[in-house]
Design goal:
The chain is of the alpha+beta class. 35% of the residues lie in helices and 20% in strands.
């Protein structure tokens, strides 16, 4: 398995993983209405590409297939972390998360943050 940076050509596979994961895995913990609102049939792919490109975004690839992805912003906010349902409990999310965490600087790490700043860098 390889963890690499997001490329725009990954977008279709990433959005499919997102929708399938929410509807096949997360349905166990949420109502149908909730998962439909969370992962609707229509995804604004331009908006997704914009945020995925602005954030530190990585994809997990196995045998030339995208099997997971995640993104984190410069403040350390972990926005998305999803793994294809066929690859759950195989360490994919851990590997992606480790890579994402390596991208944020020390001031964003727990214990180093200004306590007045929440996860979106707003002064409370």
């Amino acid at each position: 398995m390889e963890i690499r940076r997001y490329e725009k050509s990954d977008l279709e596979k990433i959005t499919m993983i997102f929708q399938n994961t929410v509807h096949k895995v997360n349905i166990k913990d949420y109502t149908q209405e909730q998962v439909d609102a969370w992962a609707p049939d229509f995804i604004d792919k331009e908006k997704w590409n914009k945020t995925l490109s602005e954030h530190h975004t990585f994809v997990a690839v196995k045998n030339d297939a995208v099997i997971g992805f995640g993104d984190i912003d410069d403040s350390g906010y972990l926005d998305r972390l999803y793994v294809h349902h066929d690859y759950l409990r195989q360490g994919v999310a851990t590997m992606i998360c480790n890579k994402l965490e390596s991208m944020i600087d020390d001031r964003c790490r727990p214990g180093n943050r200004d306590p007045r700043i929440n996860n979106r860098n707003a002064i409370l």
